[in-house]
Amino acid sequence: MVIPREAQKITNSNELRNFRKTLALSEIQKDVLIGTLLGDGTLDGNRNYRLVISHSIKQRDYVNWKYEVFKNWTLSKPNYNPVNNSFRFRTVSHPKLTLLGELFYKDRIKIIPVSISKLLNPLVLAVWYMDDGNIRRQNNKIYGYYLNTQSFTKSENLILSQVLKDKFGLESYVLKNKNGYRLYFGSKSKEIFPKIIAKHILPSLQYKIR
Known about the structure:
Endonuclease I-creI, 22% strand, endonuclease activity, 8 helices, Homing endonuclease LAGLIDADG domain-containing protein, alpha+beta, 4-stranded antiparallel sheet
């Protein structure tokens, strides 16, 4: 059987099963997936997980970029959700995504994997920041950068802070924010941080680092 390039042409369960057998995560897909899971992305499903990407309609270009990365894993193009003014798509469910889900979820709650140090690289960090980061700027002066990691516990944030220091030489602070904690790269790292991720930041999201 020849698997169609456009997955949405698949029309029955046998074709879908055969289609799944052809799938493998490329290195770029793995990196974008890991960065997405550290950020706003979710894995859901029952027997096997699927990746769900959803961002504000203002970040439509970003969703389209992720779609191009995972296009061969999808059944349909991104679509608009008027309920929350978002743009989204999802992949097919697959055992390979379930394996990653076992690293990033415990009892359906997102966690930081024990192996996080081995999973991080500049592309992963860039996707994570594009998902969940923002710049601290006042009067056109940049003071630092935030990674909004409030969904993780304080102890997990402390682990992330140490790993980022060991891996990239980034000094960060774990700061209380509302009902959680987030990472802040201040004066000690505000020059280094954007240099690590700059080449991976999309044109439409350059405002996050400049």
